[in-house]
Amino acid sequence: MWKEIRERESGKLRPNSFSNRIRSNRNSSIQLSNYKEIVSPHRGAVNSLQVDLTEGRYLLSGASDASVAIYDVQRATDYEGGGLLAKHKSLVTIDKQHEHGHKYAISSAIWYPIDTGLFITGSYDHHINIWDTNTTQMVMNFKMPGKVYRTAMSSLATSHMLIASGTEDVQVRLCDIASGAFSHTLSGHRDGVMTVEWSTSSEWVLVTGGCDGAIRFWDIRRAGCFRVLNQSHSQLGRRPPLLQRAATNKVSTSKSLSKGQSSSVKPRAPQRKMAHGNGSKQSAASKIPNLVKSSARQRLHPGLLSSQDRATAHYGAVIGLKVTGDGMYLLSAGSDSRLRLWDIESSCNTLVNFETVRLQTGKAIQLATTQDSALVFVPCMTSVKVFDVWSGTTVLTFRGHYEHVNCCWYSLQDQELYTGGNDRQILVWSPSKWNADELDEWSKKGKASALDEDNWSD
Fold first, then answer.
1. For 278, phi and psi rounded to 5 degrees?
2. Rounded to whole angstroms, how far apart are CA atoms 256 and 274?
3. Strand order across the 172-176 sheet
4. Which pLDDT tens digits describe the chain residue by residue (458 residues)?
5. CB 201 within 8 A of CB 315
6. Fewer CB atoms near the end CB (10 Å): N or C, the chain?
7. What secondary structure letter does DSSP report for 404?
8. Measured between alpha carbons, how far is 397 from 353 in angstroms, rounded to an integer?
9. From CA 10, how far away is CA 314, in angstroms rounded?
10. CA distances from 296 to 220, 224, 289, 291 (A)
11. Cα torsion for 228, 232, 238, 243, to the nearest 10°?
12. Across-strand partners of 182?
């Protein structure tokens, strides 16, 4: 770390490169925290975790005992071991005893993306509740046609306040907080919808994964899904960056122009040969039906083509989805114990060979990625595996839970990972702090005191 700091001070390292290198170093040293502990009030499996997107301070958790809790992960409520262990107890807890509390397991708990004044819970009791954080009172309720598996709100949205819900019903429903009613019903899945995820590049695009093994893309401004992923439609490797592709296109066009081809004159298409072998020109009348067929085929989105509509992304149910931060790739997990990386623009399976994993099949799981989307955290039975997104190799394996892990949430502000499992525990995985050997080494060099000094010290 100190090498990067010296290079940054001397100007050899740019600010963005410095911050990225520090983050990657912290991510590589993540381990079970021995100085921070979340005291869980839940008496059932922890199914959902999320840190608020505005302050990065409050952790929201939902559990199978129909309880939801909020913790302040920045300020501890108690200390133990002479102040070395910070304990974070719940600030707010809502359970079955509450007047409007859920009756069955809470499967999803998310923050309102604009501020921490509201949060949303979805439950197996067929209800989605919107809660006021300050008064702990329910302010709105949506009755769903079946068990609620997952809810999601877009972090980019400025034109709508829609909650996407995946339930055991085949239809995806969008709940409008502004009106208190359902605004959209998306039909296309042939079985229940296990997971929903909004795009990170457009506020109008929604991604859903169902028990039918299909992953569908929806533009909520139009009818029908516009993309269905097919696991047999594949390509190798990553797409080159936009700048590199633009440069390649310029080089190719300059080469074609240097050969004497005008950009305004298109090269002649090769003549079509007849059965007797002589080349003959195709009449204009014969071209018209083909043009009409091709244009009609292009206008039809995959939701209207039976062959593409039945395409599957996994051989089992899709139990987890995660869009990368740049919105260019999608990670999916299936009950077939497969992880896949998809190129969203081309709808291709990138064929990244993620090492063998075992995923639970009974419920949806919550994936998490780092800020640069280089690493993905995947709940694998009783452990959490960290994969390199682009190579599929296992970087780290976290073992601390006694039972199956259900959810992960990566805090971008602190580079910390929070995990919840069937053992009712919420574990904190943090980058390692300075150890005694490093401090002794710096004290021998006479630099330990300099770490705490500034330019105004005497």
1. -90, 135
2. 31
3. 148-152, 162-167, 172-176, 181-186
4. 666 677 666 776 777 776 777 777 777 888 999 899 999 999 999 999 999 999 999 999 999 999 999 999 999 999 988 888 899 999 999 999 898 899 999 999 999 999 899 999 999 999 999 999 999 999 999 999 999 999 999 999 989 999 999 999 999 999 999 998 988 899 999 999 999 999 999 999 999 999 999 999 999 999 889 999 999 888 766 665 554 544 555 445 444 444 444 444 444 444 444 444 444 444 444 444 444 344 444 445 544 455 677 889 999 999 999 999 889 999 999 999 999 999 999 999 999 999 878 888 788 999 999 988 889 999 999 999 999 999 999 999 999 999 999 999 999 888 899 999 999 999 999 988 754 444 444 444 444 444 444 555 44
5. no
6. C
7. -
8. 17
9. 51
10. 22, 17, 11, 8
11. -50
12. 175
HSE-CB for 310 with a 13 A CA cutoff: 2
Would you give the end-to-end CA distance of the chain in angstroms? 26
Residue reference for tokens 């007797």? 276
The one-letter code for the residue type at 456 is W
Longest dimension (CA), the chain: 98
Residues 6+ apart with CB under 8 A from 55: 116
Strands (E), 211-299: 215-219, 225-228
- Domains along the sequence of the chain with CATH: 1-32 (no CATH), 36-237+308-432 (2.130.10.10)
Torsion of CA 430, 435, 438, 442, to 10 degrees: 100
Q: What are phi and psi of 335, to 5 degrees?
A: -70, -5
Residue with tokens 């005008």: 262
**Rounded Cα gap, residues 394 and 256, in angstroms:** 45
